[in-house]
Amino acid sequence: MKNISTILGLFLGGTAVAYAAPNDPYLHAKNFNAPASTLQIDLAVDAVNDSIDIFNMRESEGITDKSAGDYQGFHLSAKYDLNPQWSIEGAYWHRSIDYSQDTNKIQSALLAARFTPELNLKKNDALSFRTSIWGNTADTLTKSTPTTVNQRTFQQVNVEDPQDFQVQFDGIFSRKLDVMNQLNAFASIGYSKVEVSNLYLQAMQQGCLMNVNINSSNQYSGNLAQPCTKGGITLTNLQISGNANEFGLDVQQDLNYESYYAGLGGSWNWRYKQFESQIAYQYQRLWRDKIDDRISNFGNAAIKDNHTLGAKFSYDFTPHITGFMQGEIYQNNFVGNIPFLYNGVTASRLDKRYGLASLGLNIRMF
């Protein structure tokens, strides 16, 4: 278990956009002071590197590799109002995260429907409900430098087809205080499922460096990664097979799991003419099936929650185009944001702060 979590945890390391569901901290039922439109589209670039890490989070978290966790990506999102009660949302994130000599690419997507009931509320109040499905996927996560787990060293690790899928329900309330100020609050509940298909390792077995494939049934097979000398004889062909418990791994229990989560958050919007700011906070709590007990049994502390702080600053260049800058800080890295990265070994590495900066445009039509 600890082995698996180290494997995935080593793909992280610095300062990142990901949320429990994307953009959750900034949720509002209605932006009373912003220009109204039927269709809104966001286009933004997202990045993290040593220059953007102005708070030196990597250094304060004890991370010496200044490139660990460098992030380059972009996201596109759109919201369309079908009528005053119903709207639909969609979003896509492309993420590229560096670790040492490896670059791993993660794709994320969200689809949501929002309902605003006709209630007898005050004119400065708004309430809406949102149901969304969202998830993350990657073809392969690779770490090609040596990894020591449970006193066992793997020379290279490939995690094949990691993915997660979430269903989430949000209740969102907004209140306009005056012509400049608005408060928002939301509560969320959700279900999550994480799956990984195969692991490919380079590890020492029977005194030789082997290429090892571990399938979803936790059975492994392998062959020589390079010629091996045993008892004065040079071997050029050696086949091995067995149960991955020999490596301290159990794919079904350590990588594939289900969980439930809940969240609370709120934000404050302040607007002056064309300028608007939004300061946001979110708390998320997770209840995972079995995996946290296994993490504790292997001597690590399970991470069962996360805190997110966000700030967004916008300026209306025209009635239809707004530029924005935003940034987030996550108390416990990607926990709850990219669920397939969490397991027994990453639990000891994901308790690090992580942040992300974004720069983009909001385009309003109709």
Q: How would you portray this structure in words?
A:
The relative contact order is 0.22. The protein has helices spanning 2-9, 57-60, 251-254, 291-297; strands at residues 39-48, 71-81, 86-99, 102-115, 125-137, 140-143, 147-149, 152-160, 163-176, 181-195, 198-205, 208-214, 219-224, 228-230, 233-235, 239-243, 257-272, 275-288, 305-316, 321-330, 354-365. Mean pLDDT is 83; it is low at 1-20. The longest helix has 8 residues, at 2-9. The protein starts with a helix and ends with a strand. Strand 2 (71-81) and strand 3 form a beta hairpin. The chain is mainly beta and 366 residues long.
Please compute the radius of gyration using only Cα atoms: 23 Å
* Total DSSP E strands: 21
In percent, how helical is the residue content? under 10%
Shape summary: elongated
Q: Kindly, what is the distance between the CA atoms of the first and last residues, rounded to a whole number of angstroms?
A: 53 Å
> What is the chain-wise order of helices and strands?
HEHEEEEEEEEEEEEEEEHEEHEEE
Q: Give the biggest beta sheet.
A: 12 strands, antiparallel, barrel
On the 0-100 scale, what is the average pLDDT? 83
Question: If helices are DSSP runs of H or I spanning 4 or more residues, what is the number of helices?
Answer: 4
How would you sum up this structure in a few lines?
The protein has 366 residues and is mainly beta. The chain contains 4 helices and 21 strands.
